[in-house]
Amino acid sequence: MSLPYCIQTEREALVKFKATLHDTSNRLSSWRGNHCCQWEGIACDNVTSHVVKLDLINPCFGFVECDFVEHSLKSPNVDPSLSQLGYLSYLDLTGNDFHGSSIPTFIGFMGRLTYLSLAYANFGGRIPSSLGNLMNLHLLDLSSNNFQSLTSNDINWISQLLSLEHLDISGVGLGKAHNLFQVLNTLPSLIRIYLADCGLSNLPFPLVNFTNASQLQVLDLQGNQLTNLIFDTLQNMTSLVHLDLSWNNLDSIPSWFRNFDNVKYLDLSMNGLHGPIPDAFRNMTSIEFLCLSNNFFTSIPTWFQNFDKIVHLDLSFNGIVGPIPDAIRNMASIKFLSLFENHFTSSVPPWFGELNSLVNLNLGRNELAYMNCSLSSLLSNMCQLKYLDLSENKLQGELIGGYELSGCNSYDLEVMDLSDNKLSDQLPAWLGRLGNLEYLDLTSNFFHGPIPFSVKNLSNLKEMHLSNNKLNGTLPDSITKPVNLTYLHLSYNNFIGFIPRSLRELVNLQSLDLSNNHFNGTIPQSLGLLVNLESLDLSNNNFNGTIPQSLVQLLNLSSLDLSSNYLNDDVPQFLGQLINLKALNLSRNNLQGIIPESIGKLLKLQKLDLSSNTLKGTISKRIVWSSIIGLAYLNLSSNLINGSIPHSLCQIDELYSLDLSMNKLSGEIPNCWRDNPAWQDINFSYNNLSGVFPSSFQNLSSLLWLHLNGNNLQGKLPISMKSLKLLILDLGENQFSGSIPFWTNNTFPSLQILRLRQNKLNGNIPSHLCQLTSLKILDLSGNNLAGSIPWHIGNLRGMTLHKSPEPGPLFLEPNESSTTGWSKEEAKQIMKGREYDYTKILKFLVNMDLSDNNLVGFIPKEITMLNGLLGLNLSHNHLEGEIPKMIGDMKSLESFDVSHNKLSGCIPNSMPALTSLSLLNLSTNNFSGPIPQDNQFLTYDASVYAGNPYLCGRPLPNKCVGDDTGEVVGRGGYEDEDEDNLEKLIFYFVIAIGFVTGFWIFIGALLLKKSWRHAYYRWMEDAADMIYVAIVLKVEKLKRKWMVRNHVHG
């Protein structure tokens, strides 16, 4: 049959229409010549030769691996020439780009149209009411045009489309179309309605109850924030086969839902449904697709076993508890099952292996503890399974299984994720049978032994994640056979030896992480052949030698981490040629020389860490630091860098952390700091900087940590500062003088650490300092402060404990602050008589040090309100009076030093209640009376009390009055001999019974439960010291009683 010729006027209209389109992918290359009926996307009537179909749908529409934008036809509008196609019945412009223009009115006068799709074509404005003229339309699709940029406030025009069967206006703004459901109720032929993301929550309720819904099969109302009021509209739609109410605000299901017994597709995800899965679903025995994810369901009913036709079941992100129910076992047709992120416990049932239609099985992020069969046995017959996720459970032990997979000729498995469990097998040889595997993640387990030789058979593998295990041995050449690998992550294991040269065969590799192992030797030049590498991490190994020149070929590299090795020589100039670098970390090596000027060419750099080397010279002014506009983190600390701090460092807009500490920098700190919302951390500590505190620091309103300690800064501290977010202000070990400024909670509302030690400050401790209610560390030691300790000291709420609202330990009141940066912060603090660098636990430290000043007066009783203090040092002052009697309330104290004062009176009876106290120094005072003989006081030596001539009792040689033995009589007097014997008898009897009973209970349990063994050993390790101390104290107390009794009766 000969092909029809096209009508000349219609051909000319098409040519004119094409002329307005920007066709970047040359889709319309066939649109030339006279026979327009043969052009791509054109169909003509075989009799009349009129163009009846124009199908220009984007060929990438619905395909992920396709450049949608590239294949999109682009035009500022739809040219009116199309109106000349008067016989057109089919028009599809889906997936093109009309630049937000309005849908042309003339389309409404193309009266023969039965099919009109303008979906995803970037139209905007109001939908023209002229579309109501298209009374022959069977399908109208105006969906997803830039999320409600297309609107319709008056929907009456739809009521004229009496032949309409399919209506999709998803993404159209209909929030003001108050008569929407009344209009839809007038359309007798509607079968499918799609109203997703239309802003329907603004519609007035109650809505119309659908009466004209006998043919309606598909209803999509997702993403409209609808409440339960929508159910009144749905009640008569019993013919529905497909119902989507996801992404709304529903919190319950009406009982009449059981009438929806024809439903095959039901999506109620992303709502607020809670409790057991409701009985209203039980009649949906034809269900094939059921998605109830992201709700608050707590249990799966037994009648789920009736869903034997189900293909897709998603119960992820709920709160379902208990074992995985056997009801799922009856779902023989199921292909997709997700129980991800619930609270399923017990085991992975072996009957999963019977569901051999499964393609996707996701049991990740639950509390599954074991498997009733090995993984190899489970997978043996699951030939079609493509996705398996058992990650983030509590699976432990040797569950993988060593024998070969044998049930299938081949396995379709593409993704296997067992990460974040406690599996302790060797990696099985049967991994090599999974020839289609593309993604393997065994991260964060206890796998040990070598990487099996069989991995060479994983020819399709793209990502291998084996980090954070206990794998050992050398890297086998077989690991380089999966040549499609793009990610190879083997960090935090125990691999040894050299990096094999064969690694160069992985030419597609984009990310290589071998960090935190025991590799040695030099970094091979062959790594330079991995030209697609974007991330290379070899940190925390034993590599030596130089940084290989071949790395200059890695032009795609965005992250390079060679830190914590033994690399030497200079920092190479060629690094400046890696122009895509965003992160460069060469810290903690033996690098020397100067900072290369080529660093200034890395204009995309965001993080630079050259700390802890032996770099010399100055911070070059030839490096225009401000031109590296994205630089956010710069760490040059712990080197031998000298010279001054360049002003250009003030001008990096994105910089949030600058660490130049522990160098030999000199001169004044530049006074050029401007307000920058990115700033968090400045550390210039332990240099030779001089001059005064830069006034421009007051501009850094976002700064959290400021360390200027260990320099030669002088002058007065700034009297007034703007309200800063500082968490740490460390100005210690300088030459600042004058009094402490008027700093209050308004000045530093979030300040947690104030460290001014070893300066030349004088005057009183100002009472307004006690308004810093977030303060956890206050260190004013080593100054010339005088006067008394203000009684307002008890207002420092950051140093107090608060009762937990639930049963459990006491906790420090949390401060609203960023916690991400604490891990790298440190501060020197005197604790337990020694100076410590606190880093990782700094945010948990609570300490007050006012020592080495000229303070006078009493220790205020209000200080005992600070019951969160771990350390309190008031030594080397001129304090007098008594230790406050309520000091026993400070139960967190681990270190208490009031030595070298003029304190007097008795040691308070409450002090033995400080059971955490491991360092006590009361020496060189005027204390008198007996030393307490309870708890930890039995363990202190005489040096604790030296220089107090009026103290008596053990461990001092001074005997108390009426005590010839030097022992102090207990506060209740001597117990009689019978009582003493009874106490001895009970003590040893309890020890004996406890030992025998405990021995057999624990030994029996440990023999039966392997998992308990590990927990018990960990518990014993934590408890050993506590048990030892308790027994020693008790024995010591009994010995003393026996000695005193023998002396009295002797």
UniProtKB/TrEMBL annotation:
Q: Which SUPFAM superfamilies does its entry note?
A: L domain-like
GO BP annotations of the record are:
post-embryonic development
| Keyword list, A-Z | Cell membrane, Glycoprotein, Leucine-rich repeat, Membrane, Receptor, Repeat, Signal, Transmembrane, Transmembrane helix
Topology with regard to the membrane? Single-pass type I membrane protein
Q: Could you state one GO cellular component term attached to this entry?
A: plasma membrane
Q: Does Glycoprotein count among this protein's keywords? A: yes
As recorded in UniProt, coiled-coil segments are none
PROSITE patterns on file:
LRR (PS51450)
Q: Which InterPro entries match?
A: Leu-rich_rpt (IPR001611), Leu-rich_rpt_typical-subtyp (IPR003591), LRR_dom_sf (IPR032675), LRR_N_plant-typ (IPR013210), RLP23-like (IPR046956)
Where does the chain cross the membrane? 985-1008
Stated family: Belongs to the RLP family.
PANTHER family assigned: LRR RECEPTOR-LIKE KINASE, RECEPTOR LIKE PROTEIN 30-LIKE
Name the record gives this protein: Leucine-rich repeat-containing N-terminal plant-type domain-containing protein
Protein's organism: Crotalaria pallida (Smooth rattlebox)
The taxonomy runs: Eukaryota, Viridiplantae, Streptophyta, Embryophyta, Tracheophyta
